Amino acid sequence: MHLFVSSRPLPMEELLQEYVKRTGNGRLLTTIPELPHAIQKDAIEIRRDVNGKPYFPQIPQIRFSISHSGGFWACVFHEKEIGLDIEDPTIRRRTIPLDRLAKRYFSQEEQQYCEGKGLVAFLNVWTRKEAYLKCVGTGIAGGLSSISTVSGGTWKTSINDRTIFDLANLPNFSDTGLIGALCVEHTLVEGELSWSQR
């Protein structure tokens, strides 16, 4: 699994080629025979399912999730369902009171977790919820209020057999200034997730 972070959207073929190299050409090329053709320039096709989740019709074995915020764009690839959300806390936000949004979309425990902690705590909850909903394929339409990412005053590390991972735990990710989370449909193994910034 690899996460790419950039100041602009990058060509999907280029990212897929790098993902294949980082994952190990032999294994992916053996298990996905259509991959060499699919990752050639201008050959990649992206479609959206009925809920709006993007996918590659030629190579359904590789899943991805995209997120953007402010001047940042991010994309993650994996062979299992995955969801990603990033937020830039420095961009100007409308003067919508966070407590009103929290009451509408957050569970009681999430609201209590955020109480008095400001924007960063709010965005930590938001990115975890959105990453989960992207992973299950519903996006925000699946209902931000339908899940809770906090239990007993601490973060849940999984919801319905899907692992939630705080991107701040990646080496040097905090240097980007972003807040983010990803969700994957299995338990993450240490070292399984790598990332790069371009």
Give the structure's gist in a few sentences:
The strands form 4 sheets. The chain has a 4-stranded mixed sheet with strand order 4-5-1-12, with helices on one face. The chain has a 4-stranded antiparallel sheet with strand order 6-11-10-9. It has 198 residues and is of the alpha+beta class. Helix 1 (12-23) packs across helix 2.
- Distance from first to last alpha carbon: 17 Å
CATH superfamily: 4'-phosphopantetheinyl transferase domain
| DSSP helical segment count | 6
The secondary-structure class comes to alpha+beta
> Can you count the beta strands?
12
Looking at CATH, which topology would you report? Answer: Ribosomal Protein L22, Chain A
Instruction: Give Rg in angstroms.
Output: 17 Å
- How many domains comprise the coordinates? 1
Mind describing the biggest β-sheet? 4 strands, mixed
Based on the structure given, which CATH architecture is correct? Alpha-Beta Complex
How do the helices and strands follow one another from N- to C-terminus?
EHHHEEEEEHHHEEEEEE
Q: Could you tell me the strand content as a percent range?
A: 25-35%
| Coarse shape | globular
- Arithmetic mean of pLDDT: 86
CATH class value: Alpha Beta
